[in-house]
Design a protein that fits this description.
The chain is mostly helical. Helices cover 63% and strands 0% of the residues.
């Protein structure tokens, strides 16, 4: 499987949200980057489906 190029993307979030996201990634047994990528992809896919 070919790897997709990845780039760094910085965002500013409230400390409590950062803590919750980090804990959620641990609970999901995923790296923070993989977890955030999956959650954003899921959100965008769902939003696109609703728009149809």
């Amino acid at each position: 499987m070919a790897q997709v190029e990845k780039r760094q993307f910085n965002v500013y979030l409230p400390p409590d949200l950062i803590k919750r996201v980090k804990h959620a990634s641990v609970d999901a047994d995923e790296s923070l980057s993989s977890f955030v990528e999956r959650v954003l992809e899921d959100y965008l896919r769902t939003s696109e489906e609703r728009e149809r």
